[in-house]
Amino acid sequence: MSSQDKKTDSDPGHEEDHSSTATEDNKQEAVICLGNNEVKSRAVVKYSAAPPPTSYALLQEKTDLKLPPANWLRENAHLGPAGTTVLGTSRKSKPFSSFGMAYDFIDCIGDDVDVVSDSENIKKLLKIPYSKSHVSMAVHRVGSTLLLDELDIQELFMRSSQTGDWTWLKEFYQRLIDQKWQRKKKSKEHWNEKAILSKFLYYSINSDGTAVPVPSDTDQAAEEDCGTAADGPSWPATFNSSTTDSEESEIPKEEQVDTYTLGHVSSVPKEQNLPTLFNEGENSQGLKNDFVRNILWTFEDIHMLVGSNMPIFGGGRYPAVSLRLRDNNKPINVLTGIDYWLDNLMCNVPELVMCFHVNGIVQKYEMIKTEDIPDLENSTFSTRVVKDIAQNILSFLKSNCTKEGHTYWLFKASGSDIVKLYDLTTLCEEAAEEKCQNPFTLPVAVLLYKVASNMMLKKSQNRKNYGTIRTLLLNCAKLLDEERHPQIIASAHYMLAELFQLDDVSEDEGNGESLRGGGSEDSYSDEEEEEEDDEDESCSYRTSSEPQDDSKAVAVIKSVWELSVPEKYKSTHQIRPNCAFPVSQDKEEKCRLVLSYVLKGLKAVDNSIKKESDLPAVDPSTPIPLKYEERSQNGAGDVEKEIALLLDRVGPFNKELKMPTRSGMLTGTWQHRIKLQLFLKASRAYYVLSDAASNLLKHGRALRYIKLALQCHDAYCSISGCLHPQVLLFHCQCLSLCGDVQLMLAQNASNRAAYLEEYSYQTKEDQEILHCLHRESSCQAFSMATDLAPDPEYQLIVSSKCYEAAHDLLTSGVLKDLGQEQLGQVLKRLGNIRNEIGVFYMNQAAAMQAEKEGVRRSVCVAEQELWKKSFSCFEKGMKDFNMISDSINTALLLCNIGRLMRICAQAHCVVTSEQSRGEFSPEEALYYNKAIDYYQRALKSLGCRESHSAVWDSVNWELSTTYFTLATLLQDYAPLSRKAQEQIEREVTETMMKSLRYCDLHTESARQPLYQYRAATIHHRLASMYHSCYRNQVGDESVRKQHKALAEQHYSKAVRLFVSLSDAPCELLRTLLERVAFAEFTMAGQNSSAVKLKTLTGALEIMSETRHAFSLIHKELLEQQEKILTAEDSDKPEELHEGSDSSSSELNTEEVVKLIGVFEPSFSFLLLQLIKLSTASKRKLSGKEEEQVKIYKSVYSCLLRAEKSVPLTQRVSLFLELLDQLNPPTGSDEARSSS
């Protein structure tokens, strides 16, 4: 047959692979049908060391098989070990045969395959209900895969008597199972049958098929071998030795253990190999895959990886047949039939050739199809029953062999119907024997490691395996002794740490469902505890009424015939469980797990280094101080020096170090490779912890963690000969985060005591990791950048230096092409910190200026230095933002420079000897114009409001404010000593109009009322200026008319804007009174009574408009009184006081009194003049006019009799009544007043 002779997935560890032919897999499926009994069988050859099958030699009748052929006992590729092992002259089946297959096909272990075993063991299990012979097998669980190996209890106890190992098991066996144990020897008839079968196979491959006698001494020697070979020990020696350092150095490099490493920072691990974990010789017996072929056999829904040595021949109706020799006097029984049938199914052989003999003389041949074997006479059996037996046994083992790393013993005594399962690992622990005395311990641990390592290679494609990998590695580490196998333990803990992906936290959060869940570290059974305690009606577990000898068994099958009942032992567990990753979503807990694994790995590495460090012995319980030191005046210079040293030590790709490290570790060793990765992983974990603490505003804790992260990185640099670009990128991230934390500490200096407490706290785990770091490095390279300093300025400088160092690294040749994305972030941080430092110096300058308020002053050198520092930082920040085309932040920095220019202008304010404000100086004008220029550049940088409305509005407001301030100072403190009045008035007008241009009155925003107030103020000021010009202008009448018209225009606009505001009644009242005064001045220059009367009537109408202002004032006065009364009723004088303060701040009552002092005489004057002009007129008044005059007189009379000593509220109420008499309010006026 073709498929069984194909060789795929071959392992170079097998010497015979190189001589055998290799072609592609030919996957074939055979469905065996027997009436209503249908079973599905599919066999795929994964590996074959046999040559293509050749036709068997058909022996002539009467051939005497007792005579040996000429080629007898000579190695033959067609027979493989089958021709000799049946005689016992070759190695027996090893107790570790399943491990050899598992090592070769590691991809199948843990998930794809349910069982790995020798085909003989599979057959023995499936024949349990039919056979009275004993069964003794070792069972191990790796993931969801069970490894089955023959546990030759007799040979084991013979070894125990020689070495003293496993004495506890021998005593247990004799006491509870077979008290009269003794080794049973094979009969001579048994060995004669074996010899005849061996000769028959050699005859079948002999070209002429004739018997060629061999020397009698050879025959005699063979018969002697038959009787003695089986008695020799074939059990491997106990795995209790480890490779010393000297021995390790002698092992070729390619044969040494290549631990699981990721390069320097690569996220994709390199392929792992563990070719020589054990010494060659006795300790490696049984760990090789010695089978002629390895087959992936699917029997119904059970997937098995089996090893087979059955010889396969060509010939007959099919391309492949199996040869069998039978004694014609002994009929075929059920056991033999099942044996033949399963062998053919496993190897996918469609036909069986049976040779019958009588006393060694060939009689005849018979051809039997594989599907016909179950119906042979005297050996009839149901394939369905065999299928049920297979499923029940697998379910039984899966349900009870739950602890990974434990060795289970499946035992059935000869002639017994009871099958028992023992946990030998637990029994060994109870016997207080070392775990190394279990010979399965090391092979199991290595297999767990290899399976986990193989799964790690695929972790990016299949995250659901994370839980399985974790369980495999934890159990691997639990099985091994750290002193004997530090390399595997260190590698396992590094892989455990690698399971936690700390680079992309969002990925973990997005896959929360797959990461949640629990599960025991050494068990795949979520219901393990319940199932051990509860009786399952479908499984015959032990009860209290059972014999005492079952008390040590994990589970018991009371009768082998229960295995034939369909689904009798149906497992409540999945055949391939999906183990969830037992880890919390909490970042800190996740990182703490990583650090615990890193620490265990570092301890394993350090313990394996023979040469002691020159460092004095340290006490892990003594914390390493992390407190800050007071800084000298040269603190900034110290930071620059430290950062320069830092950049030197992390330069790209130095030569490989040849000298031993500080701890005596040699570079290039496995300790060196593992330590590099552990240091880097610890650094990443501390980085994530720092980032998380920073997000929680725990800045002291964040600084402590980033200090630890950088110390881990310093230790990494100390032992690394060359730095991978990805390591440098991560280092830049650490420096950036350190800069962020220092910036936040500077901005929150008021909480420094709490931050210092967080910073000083240290866990025992952190202390132990620090001590491991100090074995390789002093860890002082980053101390200046990560200390908690008391000075905010120092912290800002440190933050800036961290960003600058990250920038220098990212712009170096090594990272120029790799760190572009990170470079943009660092440049933004650089621009931001330079802006922060600039603002810091600017605020210091403003504070220094405020201290000199009201004192005659001049600009001091300290102020100028602060301006220069601030301006320099702002300029550097703008360059950073320009490099990443960040127009918004560029605009903000330009806006800050504009503010700096305004502070400079304020500092140049001239104070006279009388401590009063002097004229507006040229220096002030220069700085204000510079500020305007920077604000305009900021708007130009933004382009339009749509780019960023908030920043645009802010810059627009500042620009309008600067124009307004400049114009106000120019108007109030006019430089008449340097400029003419007309020039000043022109400049004021132009500047005010520019400020007005930037007042956005139409866009609804929080600043809209401010813009309206400013626009109203600008119009009021311009109107006042033109009013003053109109009064003082002499000569050109056209100019006076122009000033009059402009004054009227601006007064009108100012009133309209003030009316739209509900919180500016005083400004509205003042503007209206000025406008009335302007009308009175105009009337004074008029000669005609009619013209004067018209002007006075217009002025009275303007005076009537003050009603809106008085109504607003009256409303606020009433609210103030209500607050006072409420406070008095509640008997809380402190609230009364606070209420009074808040009311006075809302309404300036003193200003109101002053304005009333102007209002009353002006109102009286207008009424008196109107009465005089109306009554003195020669023209007879109409009835309406007479009525109006009466009203004027009444109002005038009330105004004169008004008491000035009454409360302000009553006076305002009187004014409202009088104004209402003059001009009854309309509906719109009432609505406006009520609002």
What does this structure look like?
- This is Erythroid differentiation-related factor 1.
- Pfam families: EDRF1_N (PF23788), TPR_EDRF1 (PF23723).
- Residues 1-28 have a biased composition (Basic and acidic residues).
- InterPro entries: EDRF1_N (IPR056582), EDRF1_TPR (IPR056583).
- This protein has 1235 residues and is of the alpha+beta class.
- It has 42 helices and 13 strands.
- The strands form two sheets. A ten-stranded mixed sheet has the order 1-2-6-7-3-5-4-11-12-13, with helices on both faces. A three-stranded mixed sheet has the order 8-9-10, with helices on one face.
- Strand 8, helix 9 and strand 9 (351-358) form a beta-alpha-beta unit.
Approximately what portion of the residues adopt beta-strand conformation?
5-15%
| Uncertain ranges | 1-36, 87-91, 207-286, 505-548, 572-581, 611-618, 624-633, 650-655, 1132-1145, 1225-1235
Helix-and-strand structural type: alpha+beta
Strand arrangement within the widest β-sheet reads 1-2-6-7-3-5-4-11-12-13
Q: What is the 3D shape?
A: elongated
- Can you count the helices? 42
Largest β-sheet summary: 10 strands, mixed
Count of DSSP strands: 13
The helix fraction, in percent, is 40-55%
- Rg, nearest Å: 50 Å
Arithmetic mean of pLDDT: 76
Distance N to C terminus: 103 Å
